Q: What sequence folds into this?
C-alpha cells in the first residue's frame, strides 16, 4: 500500500469512527473508506449478532466496520469479528468437491460427480435400510435459509426426522427451560434491558471472553451507573468477574442449590412480588399444581449455611446476591453454556426463571431472564426453523397432529408424509451411526454442514468409529477432524460469499447480502441442498436450485416466513426487501410489514400477539382483555408461567478418590469453538495456539506441577496431555481446559462426559471427574494445530 | 498491517493527560475529541491483532482511560500478504502465554 493510500485509509478509519459515535467527520468523502461498496451484514461468529458493514474493493473484502445503527453492537466489534476476513482468504480453504477412493485418498471430483454420487448413495440406503438410515447434522452457523432447506428436504422430502444440529450440544437446555417455564422458546426481553437493569446476574458465562460486545454493554452500564450491582456465579474467577461486585464461586453442577437458597432468602425476607405471583404464575412439579406456600416450604431446606457446605459458595454471598437481585427494581440474568451443558441444564434454567418470577423481574424494562447463544444462528437457524429431530418450523413438535398437517399443506406434500415420531437426538444419532456390516447401527449415512463433530462431541472415543464406518458427507470451508473421517467433502461458501439471514440471541434476524464471489469451486450450502434434492426427484419441493444464492435465499426465506406466519415466532413482516432496508434487522414476533418488531414479549402494548387474530384462532388462544402480562403459550391455556419445584441433583459424575478433580471446559476470547476458522488467523492463533489445563496453585504444588509442565488429564472415558497453567483463576479442585485445540493428544472432548439431560438431551460437557499426573517438564509441542492436509489421518 | 479506527473513553477532565499518553505511541494517531471531552477518536496502525491488544491493555491500565472500543478495520495489506504467501504465523512459545491472576 503506498503512503497516500495509507493516509487515506487512516483518515477514512477516523472519519467512519467519528460518524459511528455521532461526530461529524471533517471530510465526508473519507467516510467511504476507499472501497467500491459497503455491504450491510452480520458478524459470522458468536450469538451476539453484531451488525457490520463489509468493505469490498476490486471484488475482495478489504475492510470491516461496525454498524452504528445496529441495536446489538452500536458500531463496535470484537477481535473475532474484526479478523474474520482472513478466514475467507486462507490458503487452506476447501476448493473442490472431493471423493474418497478405494486407496483411502481423496480425489478431486466435479460437482456433478460428487452430487450424483451422494444422491445415489442416499437413494441406496433409503431403499435398503429405510428412510431413517440417512441423517442430517447441521449447525447454528448455517444460515436460516440453509437450515430450513435441509430440514424441509429431510422431513418433507425423505419423510425422516433424522435431523439434528449442534445447538443440541449448547442451547437445548435453554430451549427446554424457556418452553417448560414460559411455554415458548427464546427470551422474553432483549439486550436493551442491559441498559435499564439495576442488577445484572451473570451465571455460567464468561461474558468478557465469549460475548465481548455484550460484556462491553454491561461494563458501560456499570461505569455510567456505579450503583448497578453485578453478580457473577461461576466456578472460575474469569475476566468477567473483574467488574463484579459479588462472586458466587461454586463447584461445577452445584449451583442449583445456590439458586434455591437465593429463592429461600427472598421469600424469608418478603422480597417477593405477591401480586405478580398470584396473577401470572403457578407452582408445579410437572404433575401437580401447588400453592406458593408449598414452594416456600420446599426451598426452606436450602439454608445458606447448608448450601455453602454443598457448593463452597459462602453463605453471606448467597444472602447478599438474593437481596440485590430481589430489591434492585430491575434485575437481569444472562447465562451461556455453564448453565446449559449439564445433565440438569433444564432444571438450572428453570431455577433462574423462578427467581425472576417470584420477584416480578420479568416483562418489564431492565428485568429479564436471558440466555446468550454461542453461535450466530442457533436461535434463528436451528431453533426457529425447527431443524431438530423433534420439531417443525415455528418450534412446534412433530408429534402435534395439527401442526404436521399445517406444514404438509404449506409444503404441498401428501398428508402423512411427515413422520409423527421424533428422530434421534444428537448423541443417540451418533451412537446409532455405523457401517453396513453393523446391524446395531441403523443410521448408515450422514450429511454434516458447518460443524465439526469429530472434535466437538463429548466422549469422542465412543463415536469416531461410527463416523468412519458410515457414509459421511461433510460440507465445510476447511479441512477438519470431521473431513478426516468423511467419504465426500463439499467446499462451502462463507457467509459474505453467499448472503443470508442470521437470527441472534435476542430474537433479531439480520440479513447479510452477498459481498463477493466464493473462491475456486466453493458453493453455498443452500445450492448443495437443492442440487441433492433435484437428483433425488424432489425438485418441486426445493425449487430454489438456481446459481443466484440471494435469489435462492429469498425464496426459502419467503416460504419459511409464510409457513410460520401465525405462530408466536412469526417473522411474516420481515420480508427480504424489508430486511435489506432495515439498519438493525427485526425482532420477532413481527406479524406484518408495518410492525416494528418486538422488544418484549407477553406484555400488552408491546407484544403484537395479544391482538394477532391468525395466531389466536390457529392456536385456540383467548387472552383476557384486562391482562397486562399474559404467557399465552402456556400449555394449560391459563396464561401463567411455571415456578418449578425441582429437587437438587448433582452432576452425573462427581469427583471421588479415584478421580478427585472437577474438569470444566470452555472458550477463550480469541478462539471460537473447535478453532476451525479462528486457529487459521495468525494473530488469534498466537494468542492461544494450543490447549492447556489451568490448575490452582494449591493443587499444582501437591502434584509438583509448575506452569509449562506437561500434565495428563484422564477421566473414565479418555485422556489428554496438556501443558499446565498454574493460576488462581479456578478454585482448588477445579481444572479448566479450553476446547479449541485440534491436536489429537489435546482434544479434551475425549475426556468429557456424554451423559445427557433427560429432558433436553444436551450432554454434560461442563462437568467431568478427572485425575491428573505430571508427565514431564516443558516440551516443545506442536502448536496452532489445524488440519491442512485433506488426506491426513484421524490421529 | 491493520488500520483500526477506535474510540477511547476517558474520565472527566483527563483529556490533556490522555492525549499525551496516546501521543507516546508511534502506532497511534489522535484525530479528534468529542465536544463533551469524554471520547477521543484515534487510529491504530499495527502489524496485527496481537499488537493492537497489547497496546490497548497498556492504555487501559491508566486510571484516566475507561475503555477502548474498535469500530473500523482495514486489512487490504494483510490480504495482499496472504495472497502472495508472505504472511505466515510466527512461532509461538508457550511461556509467552498471558496468565490471568485476579
A:
Amino acid at each position: 500500500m503506498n503512503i497516500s493510500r495509507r493516509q487515506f485509509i487512516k483518515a477514512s478509519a477516523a472519519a467512519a469512527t467519528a460518524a459511528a459515535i455521532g461526530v461529524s467527520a471533517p471530510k465526508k468523502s473519507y467516510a467511504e473508506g476507499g472501497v467500491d461498496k459497503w455491504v450491510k451484514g452480520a458478524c459470522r461468529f458468536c450469538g451476539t449478532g453484531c451488525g457490520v458493514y463489509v468493505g469490498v474493493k476490486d471484488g475482495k473484502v478489504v475492510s470491516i466496520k461496525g454498524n452504528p445503527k445496529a441495536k446489538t453492537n452500536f458500531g463496535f466489534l470484537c477481535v473475532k469479528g474484526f479478523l474474520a476476513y482472513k478466514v475467507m482468504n486462507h490458503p487452506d480453504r476447501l476448493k473442490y468437491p472431493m471423493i474418497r477412493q478405494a486407496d483411502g485418498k481423496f480425489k478431486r471430483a466435479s460437482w456433478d460427480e460428487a452430487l450424483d454420487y451422494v444422491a445415489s448413495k442416499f437413494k441406496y440406503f433409503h431403499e435398503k435400510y429405510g428412510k431413517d438410515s440417512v441423517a442430517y447434522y447441521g449447525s447454528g452457523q448455517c444460515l436460516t435459509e440453509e437450515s430450513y432447506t435441509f430440514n424441509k428436504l429431510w422431513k418433507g422430502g425423505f419423510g425422516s426426522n433424522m435431523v439434528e444440529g449442534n445447538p443440541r450440544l449448547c442451547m437445548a437446555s435453554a430451549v427446554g427451560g424457556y418452553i417448560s417455564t414460559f411455554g415458548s422458546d427464546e427470551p422474553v426481553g432483549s439486550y436493551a434491558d442491559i441498559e435499564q437493569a439495576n442488577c445484572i446476574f451473570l451465571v455460567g458465562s464468561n461474558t468478557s471472553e465469549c460475548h465481548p460486545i455484550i460484556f462491553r454493554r454491561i461494563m458501560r452500564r456499570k461505569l455510567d451507573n456505579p450503583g448497578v450491582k453485578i453478580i457473577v456465579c461461576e466456578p472460575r474467577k474469569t475476566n468477567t468477574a473483574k467488574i463484579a461486585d459479588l462472586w458466587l464461586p461454586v463447584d461445577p453442577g452445584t449451583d442449583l442449590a445456590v439458586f434455591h437458597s437465593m429463592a429461600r432468602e427472598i421469600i424469608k425476607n418478603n422480597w417477593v412480588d405477591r401480586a405478580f405471583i398470584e396473577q401470572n404464575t403457578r407452582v408445579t412439579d410437572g404433575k401437580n399444581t401447588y400453592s406458593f406456600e408449598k414452594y416456600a416450604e420446599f426451598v426452606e431446606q436450602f439454608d445458606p449455611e447448608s448450601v455453602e457446605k454443598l457448593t463452597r459458595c459462602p453463605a453471606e454471598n448467597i444472602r447478599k446476591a438474593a437481596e440485590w437481585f430481589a430489591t434492585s427494581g430491575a434485575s437481569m440474568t444472562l447465562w451461556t453454556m455453564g448453565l446449559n451443558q449439564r445433565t440438569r441444564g433444564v432444571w438450572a434454567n428453570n431455577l433462574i426463571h423462578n427467581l425472576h418470577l417470584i420477584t416480578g423481574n420479568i416483562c418489564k424494562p431492565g428485568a429479564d431472564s436471558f440466555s446468550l447463544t454461542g453461535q450466530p444462528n442457533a436461535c434463528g437457524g436451528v431453533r426457529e426453523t425447527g431443524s431438530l429431530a423433534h420439531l417443525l418450523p415455528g418450534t412446534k413438535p412433530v408429534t402435534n397432529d395439527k401442526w404436521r398437517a399445517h406444514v404438509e399443506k404449506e409444503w404441498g406434500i401428501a398428508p402423512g408424509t411427515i413422520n409423527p415420531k421424533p428422530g434421534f437426538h444428537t448423541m443417540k444419532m451418533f451412537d446409532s451411526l455405523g457401517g453396513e456390516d453393523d446391524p446395531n447401527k441403523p443410521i448408515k449415512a450422514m450429511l454434516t454442514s458447518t460443524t465439526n463433530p469429530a472434535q466437538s462431541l463429548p466422549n469422542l472415543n465412543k463415536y469416531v468409529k461410527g463416523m468412519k464406518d458410515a457414509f459421511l458427507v461433510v460440507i465445510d470451508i476447511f479441512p477438519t477432524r470431521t473431513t478426516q473421517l468423511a467419504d465426500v467433502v463439499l467446499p462451502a461458501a462463507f457467509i459474505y460469499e453467499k448472503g443470508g439471514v442470521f437470527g441472534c440471541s435476542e430474537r433479531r434476524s439480520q440479513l447479510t447480502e452477498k459481498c463477493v464471489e466464493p473462491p475456486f469451486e466453493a458453493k453455498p450450502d443452500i445450492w448443495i441442498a437443492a442440487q441433492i434434492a433435484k437428483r433425488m426427484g424432489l425438485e418441486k419441493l426445493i425449487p430454489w436450485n438456481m446459481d443466484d444464492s440471494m435469489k435462492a435465499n429469498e425464496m426459502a426465506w419467503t416460504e419459511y416466513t409464510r409457513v410460520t406466519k401465525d405462530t408466536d415466532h412469526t417473522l411474516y413482516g420481515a420480508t427480504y426487501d424489508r430486511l435489506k432496508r432495515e439498519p438493525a434487522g427485526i425482532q420477532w414476533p413481527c406479524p406484518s410489514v408495518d410492525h416494528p418488531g418486538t422488544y418484549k414479549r407477553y406484555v400488552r402494548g408491546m407484544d403484537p400477539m395479544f391482538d394477532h387474530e391468525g395466531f389466536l384462532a390457529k392456536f385456540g388462544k383467548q387472552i383476557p382483555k384486562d391482562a397486562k402480562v399474559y404467557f399465552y403459550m402456556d400449555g394449560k391455556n391459563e396464561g401463567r408461567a411455571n415456578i418449578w419445584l425441582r429437587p437438587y441433583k448433582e452432576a452425573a459424575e462427581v469427583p471421588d478418590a479415584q478421580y478427585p478433580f472437577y474438569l470444566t471446559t470452555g472458550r477463550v476470547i480469541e478462539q471460537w469453538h473447535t478453532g476451525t476458522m479462528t486457529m487459521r488467523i495468525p494473530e488469534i492463533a498466537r494468542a492461544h495456539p494450543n490447549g492447556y489445563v489451568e490448575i490452582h496453585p494449591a493443587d499444582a504444588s501437591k502434584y509438583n506441577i509448575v506452569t509449562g509442565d506437561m500434565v495428563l488429564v484422564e477421566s473414565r472415558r479418555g485422556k489428554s496431555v496438556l501443558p499446565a497453567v498454574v493460576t488462581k483463576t479456578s478454585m482448588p479442585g477445579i481444572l479448566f481446559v479450553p476446547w479449541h485445540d485440534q491436536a489429537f493428544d489435546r482434544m479434551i472432548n475425549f475426556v468429557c462426559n456424554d451423559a445427557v439431560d433427560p429432558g433436553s438431551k444436551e450432554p454434560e460437557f461442563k462437568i467431568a471427574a478427572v485425575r491428573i499426573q505430571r508427565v514431564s517438564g516443558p516440551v516443545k509441542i506442536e502448536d496452532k494445530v489445524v488440519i491442512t492436509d485433506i488426506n491426513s489421518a484421524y490421529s | 498491517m491493520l488500520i483500526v479506527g477506535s474510540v477511547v473513553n476517558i474520565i472527566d477532565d483527563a483529556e490533556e493527560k490522555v492525549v499525551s499518553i496516546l501521543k507516546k505511541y508511534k502506532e497511534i494517531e489522535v484525530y479528534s475529541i468529542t465536544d463533551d471531552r469524554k471520547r477521543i477518536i484515534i487510529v491504530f496502525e499495527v502489524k496485527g491483532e496481537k499488537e493492537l491488544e497489547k497496546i490497548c491493555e497498556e492504555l487501559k491500565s491508566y486510571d484516566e482511560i475507561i475503555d477502548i472500543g474498535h469500530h473500523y478495520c482495514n486489512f487490504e495489506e494483510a490480504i495482499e500478504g496472504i495472497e502472495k504467501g508472505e504472511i505466515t504465523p510466527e512461532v509461538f512459545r508457550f511461556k509467552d502465554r498471558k496468565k490471568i491472576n485476579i
Summary: Chain B has a mean pLDDT of 82.
